[in-house]
Amino acid sequence: MPEVNIEFDVPAKMRDGTVLRADIYRPGSGGPWPVLLSRLPYGKNQTGTLSFVDPVSRAKRGFMVVVQDVRGRFASDGDWEPYTFEESDGYDTVGWAAALPGANGSVGMFGGSYFGNTQWMAALAKPPELKAIAPALTWSEPDDGLFARGGATELGLSVPWSLVQGLDTVMRRHAADPVGGMQALGALLMELDNVATSAYWELPVGKHPAFVRHGIAELGCERSRREPEWSASCRVAGRHSEVGLPTFHIGGWYDIYCQGTLDNFAAMREADNPATLVMGPWVHGSFAGQIGDVNFGIAASGDLVALRGSLTDLQSDWFERWMSADTEAEGAPVKPELPPVLLFVMGTNEWREEQEWPLARAEETDLFLRADGRLAHEPPGPDEGVDTFVYDPADPVMTTGGALLLTSEFRPGPLDQATVEARSDVLVYSTDPLETDVEVTGRVRAVLYAATDAPSTDWVVRLCDVDADGVSRNVVDGIVRATSPDSEHGIDLWSTSYVFRAGHRMRVHVTSSNFPRWDRNLNTGEPNDRGTESRPAQQTVGHSMAMPSRIILPIVPPGT
Predict the structure, then answer these.
(1) CA atoms of 514 and 516, how far apart (whole Å)
(2) Do residues 534 and 523 lie in contact, with contact meaning Cβ atoms separated by under 8 Å?
(3) 29, 288, 395, 507: most buried, per Cβ within 10 A?
């Protein structure tokens, strides 16, 4: 096996004098080598980090691998201020990495989630040594998946993520007081253990009481609204034309940043930059073949990816093509080049090559909500009326599956919706059993004609697949925070690639909460940074000729 030499805590001085530290993995022989850089806040030598980054395997392929703690985290100096310094620090680190002993002057970046975004920020700063980036599971617009969705706060993500990042903050704060540090750490760990039953439910959502109690950074929607310049420091949307680099995108249909990954890819292609997309059935941080209740098969896993090899291998092959050096390890042949798009189609559970995203051949098709819980292609007649329910923020619909990242009590992916559908505050509409397979590949939208007696409320729409045994499982969903009592509401359910099999039924949920994934609308109209009181709301959903509520599906014609 090729030898790998590791150098720990190598300092890099940023333009303001702050020292960041990295671990460097060099091949045991040869050189000079191209550099693969990953900049992250999760601890460069933590077990989970090393498993995801896999620096040893990459070094064995002939790359020098640099894994750096971002400013204010773990081994690096400075104060932890999420997102704020990633553009300037990214530029400085790329230049530093390119000049390391053994480096050939070319740098690529890789990683996912936060350290997918550090790649975009570095690329936007345009360091001349940066040749390619490979962001995985990463947002595009922070108010569409990171901080918020449809105007509602991504509470389920922001609370535990902020508290976990607070662990290192607390340890640094008490570096000279070990006893006080252990007490503060114990209190924060107890908070984390009880998020599902305590912190998720606390109000107000803005300036969250849990963050105040422990003196940790607020990393949520309310801060992004108060400080738009802070939110802009991690925004990629609208800036893709500034990044003149090849990009390799990895996403998952049940990942919390599913749509961001797709939007980033599409925008880079629109800007005439080389871009590759691999989209699996995955959730955030897991590339397994089993997602939620569904086993999509061994070939769906990130270890095999359509029997082409692991995601690490596919990335390494791709970097070899785009970085200016012969990095081929002895005895490891380059695999065939990937197509522009490699999609996993759920339902049939197969990988498919495409040349574009979104698919031009997908045809937008309406399915209308009808009386008596029907869902049909035919629009409603004039007298089909309305359906009603009461939404009480004190008794919200609990999150059951989906593209999410919450505490461990709330599993992501496709889950049985029986408990959700049994509630009186969830309207359910179903098609007849399908006569043939129906493929939905693309962005799903809903138009809802709905009214409330509250000054403000939320509308949630979910698309489900009901199998031949009657088990209903979620496919995509979305939310909109409505500030007018009576209006037409557009809801973005994000994208999927899913075949509803013959004999199955399509099903749509309409409700007003999905908690704790999204914060509860308190129905009072009071801003979230102050609201602590709630009231029930009487909700009305129309399905008539004058109020044609519907879901809009991008259906791929058979045989195309």
Answers:
(1) 6
(2) yes
(3) 507
For 223-235, the pLDDT digits (tens) are 767 788 888 899 9
Helix (H, G, I), strand (E, B) or coil at 53: helix
Strand pairing report for 4-13 and 19-27:
antiparallel
**Residue for token digits 């785009």?**
322
Compute the distance between CA of residue 88 and CA of residue 81 in angstroms, rounded to an integer.
13
Assign 549 to helix, strand or coil. Answer: coil
What's the confidence (pLDDT) of residue 2?
Answer: 73
Q: How many beta carbons lie within 10 A of that of residue 434, not counting itself? A: 15
Looking up tokens 């061994």 gives 298
Task: Check: CB of residue 33 under 8 Å from CB of residue 26.
Answer: yes
DSSP tag of 164: H
Tokens in use for 350? 């197969």
**Contact criterion met (CB below 8 Å) for 8 and 23:** yes
Report the Cα 461 to chain-centroid distance in Å: 19
What is the value of pTM for the model shown? 0.96
Q: Which residue from 523, 514, 543, 392 is spatially nearest to 453, judged by alpha carbons?
A: 523
Nearest to 111 by CA among 122, 101, 102: 122
Question: Do 442 and 358 form a contact (C-beta atoms < 8 A)?
Answer: yes
Nearest partner of 518 among 195, 161, 200, judged by Cα:
200
Please answer whether residues 83 and 91 qualify as being in contact, where contact means their C-beta atoms are separated by less than 8 angstroms: no
Taking the mean position of all CA atoms in its chain, how far away is CA 22?
26
Point out which residues pair with 351 in neighbouring strands.
Answer: 344
Say what the pLDDT of residue 505 is: 98
Q: Pairing mode, if any, of strands 148-149 and 152-153? A: antiparallel
Convert the pLDDT of each residue in 174-213 to its tens digit. Answer: 999 999 999 999 999 999 999 999 999 999 998 899 999 9
> Tokens representing 108?
């690529």
State the Cα–Cα distance between residues 234 and 239, nearest whole angstrom: 11
**What is the band of 483 on the pLDDT scale with cuts at 50, 70, 90?**
confident
Q: How many CB atoms lie within 10 A of CB 398?
A: 16
